[in-house]
UniProtKB/TrEMBL annotation:
Residues 119-219 form the Glycosyltransferase 2-like domain. Keywords: Disulfide bond, Glycoprotein, Membrane, Metal-binding, Transferase, Transmembrane, Transmembrane helix. One of its GO terms (molecular function) is polypeptide N-acetylgalactosaminyltransferase activity. The keyword Protein transport does not apply. PANTHER family: N-ACETYLGALACTOSAMINYLTRANSFERASE, POLYPEPTIDE N-ACETYLGALACTOSAMINYLTRANSFERASE 1. This is Polypeptide N-acetylgalactosaminyltransferase 1. Residues 251-260 have a biased composition (Basic and acidic residues).
Amino acid sequence: MRKFAYCKVVLATSLIWVLLDMFLLLYFSECNKCDERKERGLPAGDVLEPVQKPHEGPGEMGKPVVIPKEDQEKMKEMFKINQFNLMASEMIALNRSLPDVRLEGCKTKVYPDNLPTTSVVIVFHNEAWSTLLRTVHSVINRSPRHMIEEIVLVDDASERDFLKRPLESYVKKLKVPVHVIRMEQRSGLIRARLKGAAVSKGQVITFLDAHCTSFDKLMVQVTSAAEEYERKYHPEYERLKKLVTRAQSEQQKEQLEQKDVGSVALDARTAEDSASPS
């Protein structure tokens, strides 16, 4: 009887130690994750929007899309719509997975925590639904949420119905504020970008094409570069601006003096001509 009680005590003690070890293991593994995030320049409390794990499907992890032989003719017809393989684009998921193609130095670079926010401006004209929204999803899925102030979609007078109300309804459901701005008439890329920049609220404006894919932490690198440029070159720009302003003021002053001298000389000649006998 005593031996049985002794065994129960040993088993209970062992179970307590196992549970304690499991708790410590889980606790310190979570701490390591927090430390790793801080080393990469990201706040521990701000979790990136998860990108779906690689799964089977056309175009996943950058794999080529194979069009069946029986669909070749249809593929050629669809190609004429946007002058690219629209059939393949529609087979690829809007939030497809991609390999990290950044250089090793970019992957390990540490960025500051307090980077400025950015407004992402995307201009489109009769863009395909799949390519436009894949661009939007890639920005959202591969960027820290706190850095994306908004996404501004500028419609340069598109004519396709699905880019009207259906697009506006779709983007309202996304996790990031997405605004659709309409140009009254076809204005071209630069004017459309200027329109998007005029309504942007972010500290940095990022311009993207309507058919591209954002890689991991692209917005982090963009805003970091913008802040570094501002820090390094803005003081020099202000200094040069003052020098140019001073030079312009001196030039204007010199021109006024020359004008005054010429005016005095003209008045003297006029007076002399008036005084001379006719």
